[in-house]
Amino acid sequence: MLMNQEQIKAIIPHRDPFLLVDEILELDENRVVGLKHVTGQEDFFRGHFPGAPVMPGVLILEAIAQAGAVCILSKPEFRGKLAYFGGMEKVRFRKPVFPGCDLTLQMELTKSRGRIGFGLGKAYVGTQLMAQAEMSFAVMDRPEA
User: Fold this and answer.
1) Which structural domain, as residue segments, surrounds residue 135?
2) Does a structural domain hold residue 57?
3) pLDDT-flagged residues of the chain (< 50)
4) Is 34 a domain residue?
5) Catalytic residues
C-alpha cells in the first residue's frame, strides 16, 4: 500500500460516507491504482437493494473518479484545489459489484491542458472488468467559506 485512507484525505476533500477509496496502491504522474473494500456496511446498501445488495454503478464511477482526483491533486500545481467531473462518455457496466468484493480502481490520465483533463477509468474485481468510462475533469480553486 502506497497510501492509506488518512493520507488520501490529505489530498481529496471526500469524507465518510462518501469517501470511496480505501487505499492507493500505485501512483505516478499520469496513472493511479486504488482500492475500495466493498464491505456491505456502506450506507447505500440499505436501499440498493434490500435483500440483494449491489453497489450502484454511479458510485463505482465516483470511486474511479476519486482515485483519479488523488492522481491529479497530488501534482504540485494542483495541491489544495478541487477536481470536478466535466463529463463521462462510453460508460459501460460489465458486471455487478457485491459486498465482499475488493474493487480495484484504475485511472490513466490521457490528455490535459491547464486545468482541464481527460482520463480512462476502469474498475476490476480480480481480473474481471466491472465498469469503465472515459471521463473529463476540471480543477478549480476551493470556494471560500
Assistant:
1) 5-140
2) yes
3) none
4) yes
5) 48
